[in-house]
Design brief:
Layout lengths: L6 H15 L2 H16 L1 H8 L5 H10 L6 H12 L6 H15 L2 E8 L5 H15 L2 E8 L7 E5 L2 E4 L2 H13 L1
Parallel strand pairs: 1-2
Antiparallel strand pairs: 1-3, 3-4
Helix pairs in contact: 1-2, 1-6, 2-6
């Protein structure tokens, strides 16, 4: 089986480099701009073209003056050489997660049956701040299948404060 490189490895490596060089925001902007460029249908078609050589692909980015930062341009060339250029969106997502974590920020989804007010979201965020020992930034997602309450998801954790979750907890206690 072919050894597939994970976007995590790339994001871990460039985050380490960016942290050492103290330019994480520049790397974030670079990845975001690269992602935007790759979303252009003409650029994407050009890069996916089987008859387009690696040097022609690299030249495209040189013309866009992306080679200003040597490390960023080297990273871009490596992605092109390994045919991983279209992992950029995933790499950016993982990079942003690492950046938020380094700044003490955790992203969360608060899933509820109905849209929550700003005050309700703020109160839930304050509660979650104490649980995860970080500043929680969340977005509300409406899921009509939830009877009431909410479910908070962040990273690999979930806090089920829904009515169904509470009923299941009570059921487990009764069965014990």
């Amino acid at each position: 089986m072919k050894n597939k490189i994970s976007p995590n490895r790339y994001s871990d490596a460039i985050f380490r480099i960016a942290s050492e060089d103290r330019n994480v925001d520049e790397w974030k902007d670079f990845l975001k701009n690269l992602e935007v460029a790759l979303s252009d249908i003409e650029v994407r078609s050009f890069l996916e073209g089987p008859k387009i050589s690696l040097s022609e692909k690299i030249e495209l980015f040189k013309k866009a003056e992306i080679e200003e930062d040597h490390k960023q341009f080297s990273f871009l060339k490596m992605l092109l050489e390994r045919n991983h250029i279209f992992m950029t969106g995933e790499i950016l997502q993982k990079f942003n997660t690492l950046l938020d974590k380094s700044r003490g920020i955790r992203k969360a989804e608060i899933i509820s049956a109905f849209p929550l007010s700003d005050l309700e979201i703020s109160n839930i965020n304050q509660m979650l701040n104490g649980i995860v020992d970080a500043e929680v930034q969340s977005q509300n997602i409406v899921d009509r299948s939830i009877l009431g309450g909410f479910i908070a998801k962040f990273d690999d954790q979930m806090l089920d404060m829904s009515f169904r979750g509470k009923l299941n907890q009570m059921k487990q206690k009764i069965l014990e």
